[in-house]
Specification:
- The protein has 436 residues and is mainly beta.
- The chain has three domains: 229 residues, Collagenase (Catalytic Domain), CATH 3.40.390.10; 80 residues, Immunoglobulins (Immunoglobulin-like), CATH 2.60.40; 110 residues, S-adenosyl-L-methionine-dependent methyltransferases.
- The chain is 12% helix and 32% strand.
- It is built from four helices and 27 strands.
- The strands form seven sheets. Strands 11, 13, 14, 17, 18 and 19 form a six-stranded mixed β-sheet that branches. Strands 21-27-26-23-24 form a five-stranded mixed β-sheet, with no helix packed on it. Strands 4-3-5-7 form a four-stranded parallel β-sheet, with helices on both faces.
- A hairpin with a 2-residue loop joins strand 17 and strand 18.
- Helix 2 crosses helix 3.
- It is elongated.
- It binds zinc ion.
- The site of zinc ion has 5 residues, from helix 3.
């Protein structure tokens, strides 16, 4: 099985891959084997190196050299990943891009999806998390100690490194760390004496992390950091969770952003507000800004976040009306044209639009509490109407004929509920309008 013929075939295959892609080629020196990496043209890496596999689906085929026992070992390693994140290793049928798994003297894999056939050579079938380590390379991950910021955390003793394995200790400048902390516990980190000449130390954990010196390089589990990096690349098995909203109540009129707190928001694909798709901005995995639709209906509103893993639970916020109401409209009226005015109040409320003309004393003592009632004589109803579900009442007014250009009009809306008519009426701002 470890014949020279197979070995040379492997070397040829590895060279062929190396010429066109980043490759991880483990050394022969020891078991468990280390990994040699070389840079490719891939735009990102951490850790993340090659292309990711679409939807986390990695088709694979077993070479004839893989025994049933090896296949079982491989399946167990795949399961360690698939049980934690949205990655599926599936037996290849006719997919163009796939991984051919072979038994070999070395562990070797390109970094990430290459396009077409790519080969994963496995030597350490008996060490489950060495196989997991190799599968992480297949999924696009470089070694942890090759991060761009690694010199802050470890010191590489280059003089002690087996010269044939020097590239395993090279910083990958394009490495994407996802902003995650340096992870000594990563299954992608080397141990202190990996590739050391005569067992010499090759990696020194710098202060204040000296305690990691003895434990780094573990191959017994995926670290929390490994799982998080995988999640950020491929997504969780669980959908997002919403735990809070700020504000929890928004006015329909000029509904502001709603900032949600929760989990896994960085995987968001869609946000539904009352089942309608709305805009969103991911601020962090735990914070998401949602833009409510324009003039949402007043009442409870359910927000749901979708990711590749499904939908979050429904989280309810309140949309409120405006009381007192507010009137908005153009500052000028042309006597020939109709102009839109908008009154924002409560859903299902009656709105009365009143108007006054300039410089006449009030004759409307019943409504003196209103802003305009105290100052003007001619003061009358212009229109009446019912707010819609969002509290909006749209009024179209035509400039009054017979008024001199430059005349001022003041508009004010009052809102009332005919079923529960009480004084004083709730009154809006006063909107000054000039007639031209
Ligand atoms: Zn490796």
């Amino acid at each position: 099985m470890r014949s020279l013929t197979i070995l040379s075939a492997i070397l040829i295959a590895s060279t062929a891959i190396a010429q066109r892609s980043p490759i991880d080629r483990d050394a022969f020196a020891r078991l468990p084997a280390g990994c040699v990496t070389s840079l490719g043209s891939s735009p990102h890496a951490r850790l993340f190196g090659g292309q990711s596999w679409p939807n986390g689906v990695v088709p694979y085929a077993l070479h004839a050299s893989v025994t049933p026992a090896m296949a079982q070992s491989l399946a167990a390693a795949m399961q360690e990943i698939s049980a934690r994140v949205r990655v599926q290793f599936v037996q290849r049928t006719n997919e163009a891009d796939y991984v051919l798994v072979r038994d070999a003297n070395i562990n070797s894999s390109p970094i990430g999806r290459q396009g077409g056939l790519q080969t994963l050579f496995v030597a350490n079938w008996g060490i489950r998390f060495e196989v997991v380590h190799a599968l992480m390379h297949v999924l696009g991950f470089w070694h942890e100690h090759q991060r761009p910021d690694r010199d802050t955390f470890v010191q590489v003793q280059s003089a002690n490194v087996d010269p044939t394995r020097a590239s395993e200790f090279a910083v990958v400048p394009i490495g994407n760390t996802y902003g995650l902390p340096y992870d000594f516990d990563s299954v992608m980190h080397f141990g202190a004496t990996e590739a050391g000449v005569n067992g010499a130390t090759t990696i020194v954990a710098l202060p204040p992390n000296q305690s990691q010196q003895a434990t780094m390089g573990q191959r017994s589990q995926l670290s929390a950091g490994d799982v998080e990096a995988l999640r950020r690349t491929y997504g969780s098995l669980q959908p997002p969770v919403i735990t809070g909203a700020s504000p929890s109540s928004i006015p329909s009129y000029q509904a502001p952003f709603v900032t949600l707190t929760g989990l896994r928001f960085d995987e968001t694909t869609r946000v539904l507000f009352r089942s309608a798709v709305v805009n969103f901005l991911v601020q962090s995995p735990t914070q998401l800004r949602v833009t409510p639709p324009l003039l949402p209906a007043i009442g409870p509103a359910q927000i749901v976040i979708e990711s590749g893993a499904g939908q979050s639970q429904s989280f309810t916020i309140q949309v409120t009306g405006l009381n007192p109401p507010r009137i908005e409209g153009p500052p000028v009226l042309n006597t020939q044209l109709a102009f839109p005015f908008r009154v924002y109040s409560d859903a299902g409320r009656y709105n009365l639009l009143l108007a006054a003309f300039n410089n006449q004393p009030s004759v409307a003592p019943g409504i003196v509490s209103l802003g305009i009632g105290a100052n003007f004589t001619s003061y009358g109803e212009v229109a009446i109407g019912l707010s819609d579900a969002s509290g909006l009442w749209n009024v179209s007014l035509q400039g009054p004929g017979g008024l001199a250009s430059g005349t001022s009009i003041w508009l004010q809306a009052v809102v009332f509920d005919p079923a529960n008519f009480t004084l004083p009426l709730s009154a809006s701002n006063v909107l000054p309008v000039r007639v031209f």
